[in-house]
């Protein structure tokens, strides 16, 4: 099944990343989208270890996932950000929580893994956390890659603005790959959001497999 997903679309983007070590890969799904994509990887047969963080409870995730329900903003701040529809900047996204990375996850981040962070940029949980985790991993000299999406145009200026802000900040990293949900919708026709998300998960899986294939 894994090999089937290798296609001409693979850019071998992760090849140099894979060459650098033989460490086990730890997948981290951030936000609702990241959790869904991590679950997709699991269902496609990747047998590595997983951590997931989301603002909402996720009883559907496999039992071997380390899942943490994580609220980096108070309900009030979350509502304020959503309703005010203010222009995104670093300042307005400052969370209310002191400990941004939960202890259980931090322990994993210190482990002897190579990490792949999966996230849908534009929401309030994954977008903030991916930057924090990237900074942490960078500081600890860990090997890591980020695979993410940017939102649909119809999700609005608020969501797209924040996604682009984080995308710009992360794009300086050596193993950063980003594609747009809007682009997939244009490529595959006017599909439902759910269907585009399936394509997005598959696209990420392909990126992962380009890395996995050079290990063999
Ligand atoms: N590929 C993919 N993208 C998604 C999915 N769900 C949402 N998205 C996209 O990801 C963006 C962020 O959504 P979430 O991950 O749910 O938001 P979040 O605030 O970071 O996370 P939570 O608060 O935990 O839900 C959305 O604006 C969508 O563009 C999904 O299942 N798959
Ligand atoms: Mg969500």
What's a concise summary of this model?
The protein is α/β, with parallel strands linked by helices and about 220 residues long.
Notes on the structure:
The protein has a single domain (3-213), classed as 3-Layer(aba) Sandwich (Rossmann fold). It is built from eight helices and six strands, in the order αβαββααβαβαβαα. It is globular. Helix content is 43%, strand content 17%. It has helices at residues 15-19, 31-43, 75-84, 103-109, 126-139, 156-170, 181-188, 193-213; strands at 24-30, 49-54, 66-69, 113-120, 144-150, 176-180. By secondary structure, the chain is α/β, with parallel strands linked by helices. β4, α5 and β5 (144-150) form a beta-alpha-beta unit. The chain has a six-stranded parallel beta sheet, sandwiched between helices. Residues 32, 123 line the site of magnesium ion.
How do the strands and helices of this protein lay out in sequence?
Elements: H1 15-19, E1 24-30, H2 31-43, E2 49-54, E3 66-69, H3 75-84, H4 103-109, E4 113-120, H5 126-139, E5 144-150, H6 156-170, E6 176-180, H7 181-188, H8 193-213
Parallel strand pairs: 1-2, 1-4, 2-3, 4-5, 5-6
Bound molecules: guanosine-5'-triphosphate and magnesium ion.
Name its key features.
disordered N terminus, 8 helices, binds guanosine-5'-triphosphate, binds magnesium ion, Rossmann fold, single chain, 216 residues
How large is the radius of gyration? 17 Å
User: What's the number of domains?
Assistant: 1
The appropriate CATH architecture is: 3-Layer(aba) Sandwich
Helical residue percent?
A: 40-55%
Query: Order of strands in the sheet with the most strands?
Result: 3-2-1-4-5-6
User: In percent, how much strand structure appears in the residues?
Assistant: 15-25%
Q: What is the CATH class designation?
A: Alpha Beta
Bound molecules: guanosine-5'-triphosphate, magnesium ion
Q: CATH superfamily membership, which one?
A: Tubulin/FtsZ, GTPase domain
* Shape label: globular
Low-confidence stretches: 1-12
Taking all residues together, what is the mean pLDDT?
85
CATH topology label: Rossmann fold
Q: How many individual β-strands?
A: 6
